[in-house]
């Protein structure tokens, strides 16, 4: 590729009927000026293109990183959700087992308490029946004692002299004399 210096250093041979040297030099100077501007613009564009390519690569790298991060976050979210569901299922299963065990324990305790209360009731009923029998036995003995006492009283009364007159009025008893 030609550089502006190459154009400036170029020398043409002289001929008899050649071009006007000043005109050719002016034209070459204009070409050099435009060519220099184009090269500078080209270099600026190359620099900008390189910078844009670097930025583009950086953006692609960031985009890929974001995609990777998004995929990892999505995978993590799925794992967390799955773990949470599994944990919730385990908690529910454990709670159901505990509730079942508590119900079974409560049922066993209530049966034991019912048996204990039934035993106490049977004991109280037995005690009540024993007391009723003792009461009946005591009352029969009392009745028998009272009947025997009544018989003795009747026998005493029968053995006593009659102290009533013909009208049934009691007569005073005289005190025995001390002679």
TrEMBL record:
<dbReference type="InterPro" id="IPR007793">
    <property type="entry name" value="DivIVA_fam"/>
</dbReference>
<dbReference type="GO" id="GO:0005737">
    <property type="term" value="C:cytoplasm"/>
</dbReference>
<feature type="region of interest" description="Disordered">
    <location>
        <begin position="156"/>
        <end position="179"/>
    </location>
</feature>
<keyword id="KW-0131">Cell cycle</keyword>
<feature type="coiled-coil region">
    <location>
        <begin position="28"/>
        <end position="90"/>
    </location>
</feature>
<keyword id="KW-0963">Cytoplasm</keyword>
<keyword id="KW-0132">Cell division</keyword>
<protein>
    <submittedName>
        <fullName>DivIVA domain protein</fullName>
    </submittedName>
</protein>
<dbReference type="Pfam" id="PF05103">
    <property type="entry name" value="DivIVA"/>
</dbReference>
<keyword id="KW-0175">Coiled coil</keyword>
<dbReference type="InterPro" id="IPR019933">
    <property type="entry name" value="DivIVA_domain"/>
</dbReference>
<dbReference type="GO" id="GO:0051301">
    <property type="term" value="P:cell division"/>
</dbReference>
